[in-house]
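Q: Is it fine to ask for two folds in a single conversation?
A: Yes, each is treated on its own. Send the first.
Q: Here.
A: Result:
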Amino acid sequence: MILFVLRRCIQAIVVVLIVSFVSFAMFTYVGDPVNNMVGEEAGPAERAELRTKLGLDDSVPVQFARFARRAASADFGISYRNAVPVTQLLTERLPATLELVICATIFALVLGILFGVYTGIRQKGLLSQLIQMLSLAGISLPSFVVGILLILVFSVTLNWLPSFGRGEVTSVGGWTTGFLTLSGIKALILPSITLGLYQMTLIMRLVRSEMLEVLRTDHIKFARARGLPERLVYFRHALKNTLIPVITITGLQIGSLIAFAIVTETVFQWPGMGLLFIQAVEFADIPVVSAYLVLVAVMFVSINLIVDLLYYAVDPRLRANGAAKK
């Protein structure tokens, strides 16, 4: 077990370094931040002095080495656009993004598993067919289209929910949260549905497919032959065997939610890291862009590491293989 964790940690560190270097090298060519930081009347000498001060005259490997050395101590430099430490900006925006991702994940998991089990059990039912038809729309429509439609219906037409912003938030130990206010909870509903809809339909189809396979197996037939109630057969024996692929897909999807919250945060003007990233790209704010991508990479590989550990704990075959190798 310890060797398994160490091996995964080493792989995670290598992946983060590679992703960080590729991202840093790619986004050094998105534009020249000097043009956005000085006025149009600035002369070549002033521009050259600012480039030298920012270290933009150095080669990309040298700039990345300097960035990586600082990032190792959680120092990502100063934002070109906001003139404040990047770490401070990310710390301020991180709670909003994490709350949105948590709500979207709960929405996707709960409804995805429930709908997947139901459509797997009631394959030819009218409600099951309707759910599957709606899932096609959920998996086909882009998230920005879903967000705009939700705003049109629930914000503009019905005036039930806010169309932008995070609502009223409270600070708990330096962590801002909207879970403790009514306006904060209402502001979370539409962005969470928009962000989690695709993942919900994906989990639902996966659970349905696995349920159909498991219900055909011999141990399910044996459980029914023993006279066990259908509820126990479905939720204790059948559903348990569908958890392994669901855990894997869910872990990958959580990483995707963090990475692709950019679109949802832009549509709803959600004050999270995704919106900060879009603004940084427009301004060519390289420290913010690089720090965001590094943070997303760290979160992604950390979640994958947790998924691998859960997979190892849930699947007895992996433990058996490890014991056999010993």
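Q: Second one now.
A: Result:
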Amino acid sequence: MIIKEVSIDQILPIRQQVMWPDKPIDFVRVPEDENGIHFGLFVEENLISVVSVFIHGQEAQFRKFATLEQFQGKGYGSKLLQYIFDFLEEKNTNRIWCNARISKAAYYQKFGMTTTAATFEKEGMEYVVMERVFEMHGF
């Protein structure tokens, strides 16, 4: 298993297949994609899990976290998510957040994320903003 930075073109097919298989590939793009840092987890040279990170000052958002269905429930996504949390902590990020499907909130809580009061609906899915605030770095 290897985790490394990848291109947006490498991750779009996985985003689409996992998240919105009935939509065109452009539906899974986000406006900031060109400015994001995209990470992929590879098993035997096959890309199976992806996530995109967008850093804004001391805060970062991760978006479009997806693992191919046949590899879900095996811990690969958790390894990728922990990798980006460690990466962002090294960058002195003090808050990381995401728009989580409400059905996945308990998963993110395992990583120290908490739900906020912010919720919304998109394409019939209910979402909640979740965050993790890191201890202050430095003095």
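Q: Anything structural to flag on that second result?
A: Two points. The first strand starts at residue 2 and ends at 6. The helical segments are 8-19, 76-90, 105-109.
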